[in-house]
Amino acid sequence: MSDTKARKKKSGKGFAGAMRTVVRLGNIVAVVLLLLSYSAAYVNPSKFWWLAFLGLGYPVLLLINLGFVVYWAVLRRKFAFISLISILLGWNMLWSHFQFSGKSDEVYSPHAIRVLTYNVRHLSGSVSETTNGKAGDVAKLVGGRKADVVVMQEFYSGAATFESKIAMFLKSTGLTYYTWRNYFPSRSKNRGSFCMVTLSRFPIVSSSEVDYGNRRVALITDLLVSGDTIRLINVHLKSNQLNQDELNLVDFDLQHNSDSESVKKGSKKIYWKLRKAFIDRARDAGEVARAIKSSRYPVIVSGDFNDTPASYTARTILKGLNDAFVEAGSGYGNTYAGNLPPIRIDYLAASPEFEIEQYAVIREKHSDHYPVTATFVLLHER
Hints:
Layout: H1 2-39, H2 50-56, H3 58-74, H4 80-89, H5 91-97, E1 98-99, E2 113-119, H6 135-143, E3 149-156, H7 162-173, E4 177-182, E5 194-200, E6 204-212, E7 215-225, E8 228-236, H8 244-256, H9 261-293, E9 299-304, H10 312-318, E10 322-323, H11 324-328, E11 331-332, E12 346-350, E13 354-361, E14 372-378
Helix pairs in contact: 1-2, 1-3, 1-4, 3-4, 6-7, 8-9, 9-10
C-alpha cells in the first residue's frame, strides 16, 4: 500500500515538474517576443515588416510577461526576474503607453496655447453609434473644450455645405481663422470630399502641405502668437483600411469562429492590409519628419498617426519632440474608440521651445477616435 502511495506521489511530482518546464519555455518565448517588440520602433518595416506586428502587440506581450512575474513570485521562484528584467529593459516603451501621474487640467500661463486634435470620422459618428457623430454634436463637443487651435482629420462635407459647416465650427469654438487641404492633390480646389482642417484663434500667416504621391499626409499652418510665429502640423497618415466586415472579424469572429474557412481567408486579407499599411506609414512618416526638421519656427505636431507608440512611424515623427502624453498625461493613453483593441494612435507633441502644461483624452464617443487636448507654453513667455 505504501509503495502505491509512493508511486502516486512520485508521479504527481513528475507531472508538476513537467508543467513547470512547459511554463518556463512559454515564459522564455514571451520574453523573446517582448524584447523583439521593442525593436519595432527602430527598424523600418520595409526591411523587417514582421517586427511591426510585434510592436502592435506590445501591450499584450507586456501583460503576458506581467502574468509570468506574478506566477513565479507566488511560487517564490527566481525565474520571476526573467520577465521582470525584460519589462524594465523597455522602460521608455512602458512610459509611452502608461503614465501614473499627470499634470493638472488647469492652465496657469496667460500665454498658454491649448490645442485639440480630433479625427471626426467623416462627421458620421462612431462605428457602433452612427447617430452620435453628426456635425452639430461634434461642433458642440469641440466648442466646449475652449481650445485656441482645433485640428481635425477626416472632415467631410459636400461642396454646397462646406462653408456652412466651417462657419458652424467657428461659431461653436469661438475661433476666427481656418485653413484646409483636401487629401487628394488632384481635387485640391474642391471643397467637397475629405479634408484636414485647422481652426485657430491666432492669425494664420501661411499654410502648405506635405504630399506623397497622390495623397496628402499633413497640413502645415504657421500661426502668429503674441508676436511669435509658430508652426502647427496637422498629420493624418494612412489607416489600415479595414472595412466593416474585417473589423467585425477582428472584434468577434476570431474569438468565436476561428476555425471557419471564411475567418481564415479574412484573416489572411487583414494581414496583407496591415503589412502594407505599416510600410506606407513609415514612408510617409519620413516626409513629415523632414518637414519638422526643416522648420525655422517652434513646432507643434498633432493628429492621427494610425500607429502606436511602439511603431517605427511614431518614433520617426516624435524624434526630437516632447510627447504631450508622456510629459503630462496619466493612465493608459488609448485614443482609438473603434472595434480594434484600445490603442494610442492620436498624438500631440512639441519641439523643446515649448513646455507642456496639460494633456487629456476626452472620453466621449462621437467618432471612432477620442478627441485629445494639450496645452503648450513657449518657454520665453513664462
